[in-house]
Specification:
The protein has 365 residues and is mainly alpha-helical. It folds into two domains: 164 residues, Tyrosine recombinase, N-terminal domain (DNA polymerase, domain 1), CATH 1.10.150.130; 165 residues, Intergrase catalytic core (hpI Integrase, Chain A). The protein is 48% helix and 9% strand. The strands form three sheets. The protein has a three-stranded antiparallel sheet. Strands 4-5-8 form a three-stranded antiparallel sheet. A two-stranded antiparallel ribbon has the order 6-7. Helix 5 packs antiparallel against helix 6 and helix 8 crosses helix 12. The longest helix is centred in the N-terminal third of the chain and has 26 residues. The radius of gyration is 26 Å and the shape is globular. The mean pLDDT is 82.
């Protein structure tokens, strides 16, 4: 029988009850308060995970889906809520419906994973996004090996494939014309302003939802991105990687914010009712916008890639793009968008004409 957490309300104590390896029922008191509750749940999850592992190893077939589900179950005791939600979404949306799910994990080979990658690319997902899906695949394979569910890791070269996808060319972005099609449809769905802000600032979705009126300086023409929407509740938290930054406020965006922003709320973008915008209220309408348009069916994050692509193709430096996007360092920007820079390796004209503003300090002997 699996471990269960019990709460005694008379003294606010927590205990776990489980069946030992000898078949005896054990009840163990952990303590009082929230710390004891968390510890009791962690211990129960560990016992249950071990029980599930033994069930898997004693069974005949080992479908890949069952192993991934076990990895997610084990992660509940150690992962943050947002990380756990990401694992669950990756499995439910991308891995569970794939052909990998039904294959016995002992029979999986790199060729199966390559086919999975091909299907993901057909969905117009970026290499970086697909690499994130393969990280969960790698975790499942490592878990099966570590827990002796398989004699050895059946897939070689997966880490190299992940690195190749992450550094490969071609982030997914919409063209200028496709952007305008999406913006026009966004008007019909009542989300024109948030979509325009995303395209014109390159902000992350969480940063978009956390944008406040006090973050906008209309006189200086700048927008200060310094908050983001927390996955657990609508509150102000620092941006990812402490990536607070100021981005220029384009005239079109400035006019749209003044015309469409909700001044009665502290948040710039809100629901029609005036309530703060959240993924639950925004995502369904965004999906309708995307489905109604004859454009590549890319995720909302591609508004950010579209901003970066337009900036670099217009001649903005990688350093400028890195600061505008709030990247941790310019090296990440170059890995992601470096293929957009002009290839002028054969051009040696710079050797014959020194750059303007550079003074020579060479002296003749």
């Amino acid at each position: 029988m699996k471990a269960t957490v019990y709460h005694r309300k008379d003294n606010d104590s927590y205990a776990i009850s489980y069946t030992s390896d000898a078949g005896k029922r054990v009840r163990k008191t952990i303590g009082k308060g929230d710390a004891a509750r968390i510890e009791a749940q962690r211990l129960a999850d560990g016992i249950n995970a071990r029980s599930d592992r033994e069930g898997l190893s004693s069974a005949g077939p080992l479908p890949f889906a069952a192993v991934v589900e076990q990895v997610i179950e084990v992660s509940r005791a150690v992962c943050r809520p947002r990380s756990l939600a990401h694992l669950e979404t990756t499995y439910r949306v991308h891995l569970a419906p794939s052909q990998l799910a039904s294959i016995d994990i002992r029979d999986i080979r790199l060729s199966h994973i390559s086919k999975f990658v091909g299907v993901q690319k057909d969905k117009k997902l970026s290499g970086y996004t697909i690499a994130g899906h393969l990280v969960l695949v790698r975790q499942a394979l490592a878990y099966a090996t570590r827990e002796k569910l398989v004699p050895e890791n059946p897939v070689r070269g997966l880490t190299s494939l992940i690195k190749k996808l992450r550094t490969g060319k071609g982030v997914s972005a919409w063209s200028h014309a496709e952007r305008e099609v999406l913006l026009e449809e966004a008007k019909a769905q009542g989300i024109y302003l948030p979509v325009l802000i995303a395209f014109y600032t390159g902000c992350r979705k969480s940063e978009l939802f956390g944008l406040l009126w006090k973050d906008i300086d209309f006189e200086k023409g700048t927008l200060h991105i310094r908050h983001q929407w927390d996955a657990q509740e609508l509150r102000h938290v620092p941006c990812k990687f402490d990536s607070a930054r100021r981005v220029p406020l384009a005239p079109r965006l400035k006019a749209a914010i003044l015309d469409n922003g909700n001044r009665e709320s502290e948040f710039v973008v809100t629901q029609p009712s005036g309530a703060a915008l959240t993924p639950g209220s925004f995502d369904p309408r965004w999906q309708r916008v995307r489905a109604a348009c004859n454009v590549p069916q890319l995720p909302f994050h591609s508004t950010r890639h579209s901003y970066a692509t337009a900036a670099i193709e217009a001649g903005k430096s990688p350093n400028w793009a890195s600061k505008a996007l709030g990247h941790k360092d310019v090296a990440f920007t170059l890995r992601t968008y470096g293929h957009l820079l002009p290839d002028q390796e054969a051009d040696t004209s710079f050797l014959d004409a020194p750059a303007s503003g550079v003074q020579s300090h060479l002296r003749l002997a």
